[in-house]
Amino acid sequence: MIIINYLYGCPFCKNSERILKQYNIPYTKNVVTQKTKEDFKKKYNMETFPQIFYKSSKLVKIGGNDALVDLINICRLLNENNFNQNTINYVKRFMN
User: Fold this and answer.
1) Own/partner long-range contacts of 54-63 (Cβ < 8 Å, ≥24 apart)
2) What local confidence, expressed as pLDDT, does residue 95 receive?
3) Which long-range contacts (CB under 8 A, 24 or more apart) does 37-45 make?
4) Domain count, the chain
5) Are 40 and 33 in contact (CB under 8 A)?
6) Burial class (CB in 10 A: 0-12, 13-18, 19+), 36
7) Segment 39-84, tens digit of pLDDT
8) What is the CATH number of the domain that holds 72?
């Protein structure tokens, strides 16, 4: 499940929500107001919105709109080229 901290009036938040809907990715939207904006920034140590996370057994930070787009593109590339976990693990060794 994707969690998106969504600030109304933010074009990047709107784009992230559009992308999630486009790919039928289930998500929960937490509405952030101008009054609560600073609390969210401090709590998640992120200065901008949207603040996007993947929730499994714990909350894992994805990042903002650009990071979501990057993640979607990576997943598309992996899927289109039938990369298996061994190939991914091999390449990841060189990414540090």
Assistant:
1) 54/1, 54/2, 54/3, 55/1, 55/2, 55/3, 59/3, 62/2
2) 87
3) 37/7, 40/5, 44/5
4) 1
5) no
6) middle
7) 999 999 999 999 999 999 999 999 999 999 999 999 999 999 999 9
8) 3.40.30.10
Assigned token pair, 26: 């289930």
> In one letter, which amino acid is 23?
Y
Provide the Cα torsion 88, 94, 95, 96; round to 10°: 130
Provide the whole-model pTM: 0.87
**What would the mean pLDDT of 83-96 be, rounded to a whole number?**
89
C-alpha span between 54 and 68 (Å, rounded): 11
- Identify the domain containing residue 73 by its residue range: 2-92
Q: CA–CA separation, 45 vs 15, rounded Å? A: 22
